Amino acid sequence: MNPTAFISYSWDDTNHKKWVKLLATKLRENGIESILDQWHTVPGDQLPQFMETAIRENDFVLIVCTPNYKRKSDSRAGGVGYEGDIITGEVFASRNQRKFIPILACGTWEESAPTWIKGKLYVDLRAGALSNDNLAELIATILGKHEKAPPVTAVPIQAKHQAAVTSDGPNRYVRKVMEDILALFRQSRADAGHALNIKVFGHRYVMNYNPKEKGAVDAAFAELEKQGIIEIRSGVPFLTQAGVDCIY
Description:
CATH topology of the largest domain: Rossmann fold
Shape: rod-shaped
Largest sheet: 5 strands, parallel
Order of helices and strands: EHEHHEHHEHEHHHEEHEEH
CATH superfamily of the largest domain: Toll/interleukin-1 receptor homology (TIR) domain
Strand order of the largest sheet: 2-1-3-4-5
Oligomer: single chain
Helix content: 40-55%
C-alpha cells in the first residue's frame, strides 16, 4: 500500500501554490499518495474538518516552511495557525515525531521555521527545481528506503576470547590459566588439529599447577572449549581453526 503524505503550506502567492502542487505531483510520480487542498477540497467543504482528518489519518505531514508560514503559524493566524494547533496536539498525543517533516521552500531556516518546529531536521528544497538530491532523500524517507546503517559483523574469535579473559565471568585465577594454556599453544606454533601435551592422569595435569588446582584448570579448558578455541578429545585438548585465528 502506498504511503500517504498531507502537505501543510501557506497560500503565499500564485507561484508558491504552483510550486507546492508540483511538489505534490513529484511525490505521486514516485509512489507517494500526496494529499493537497488544491485537489482534495471543493467549495462548500468544511476546511477545519479536512485539516483535522488529513493531519490525523495520513502517514506523514509535510510542513512547507516560508517566512509567511512562520508568521501565520507563530501568531496562530488563519488555516496555517489552526493546522499548527492540530499538529502540536497530534505530536503530543501520538509521540510520533517522524511523521512531521519540515521542508524549507524559501528564505533561511531562521526566517521560515515556526517556533514549535525549529529543533527538527528539515529538507532543503530552496533550489526550486524539485530535482535535487534533497528531494530524493525526502522520497526515500517517506517510502522507508532511507539509507540504513550497515549490518554489524560477527565479533572475531580473538575479540570474544579477550572479552572472556578480561570479563568478570571466570574468576581471576581461571582467566590466568586460560591465558597460560593459549600461551603454550602459541609457543609451539600450533596449527588446527594440534594436540597440546596436557593430559589428564587421574587428578593430575602435566603442567605447572598443583593437583589441588584441578578445578580451576578444568574450568579454563571448559571455557576455551565453549568459545570454540579448543576441542577436547579423550581428555586431550586440540586447537581448532578458530583457536589459530585467536592466538596468532
